[in-house]
Amino acid sequence: MFHTIECTQLDFNDTTFLMSYPLEAPAVMASVATIGVVQPILVTGCPCQGKYRILAGFRRAYAGRAIGLETIHANIYPVEPDHLLSAFLLALYENLAHRAFNDVEKSLILTKLLYRFGCSRDDVIRDFLPLLGLAPHEKVLDTYLSIFTFEEALKAYLATHEVPMTVIELLSTLSAENRNVVFALLSTLKLGINKLKDFLVLLEEIAFRDQQTIADILAEPGIQAIFRHDKYSGPQKADLIRQALRRRRYPQLTTLEAEYHEQLSRLHLPKAVQLATDRFFEDDALTASFRFQTPEQLHTLAKELLRLSEQPELQDLFTLIQG
């Protein structure tokens, strides 16, 4: 049986049991503004001893206050001072019954279990990581705990986008300064996950080799000029920045790649014929591939291959890849 209580009787400053991020949810706000708070929130305490503490339903309660509701439906659950963990678990299961948690919320829950309610790491790994849909491994726990320390803009992004565990792990190893600039890459350029991982590997390798921070690398004039160019789309900027980073990370390889493609263009290959070599130029051979649909096409290609074999540009290509 729910009770109707005044919103002024709720302690909005007590976030002991809060596990929602972000707290302000437009969908919840719109729902409450349209039909009010239909599902009762869960509270504990007694106004005679102070205000009610919210156990579950923070978003509904905050939305109600924001639109000016004077009263709200609530179920009152008695909680003893030395049984706060039980109350937190009640709120956890109540939330799990009707929604999935985002990565930031999982971090918040795990952080509170460890540092607010005194659960052991072993218990959290064994019991709560699987409950949250996570693998029961210590590395997973540490990665999710690190999210709690991330900057607010990055946490807001993680709360609304699906980011693989491997990327979160990489972000957790960065300093706050480096994480901020990497986040700019992620959000501004709309990088896909594979491209982001590629960027991070390049940046970390350059930073380690040249004893620079990632922030310093991305602040260089050439990179910033691409960032600020208003004629390039996000994907175009991403490709150009990646090319610039690859040239810096692999100067000899990228120079060799450019020379290879220039020599290849001089052969004027027919569209049906392709020549390829090892991507790192560790093989001194070329591979030819071609497509045909009729014997006549094969005959034409054979003559074309013979012509190619007699071109001096082909020998130049072999000289290049064979060093």
Automatic annotation (TrEMBL):
InterPro entries: Chromosome_partition/occlusion, ParB/Sulfiredoxin_sf, ParB_N. One of its GO terms (cellular component) is chromosome. Residues 8-96 form the ParB-like N-terminal domain. GO terms for biological process: chromosome segregation. Pfam families: ParB_N. This is ParB-like N-terminal domain-containing protein. It comes from Vecturithrix granuli.
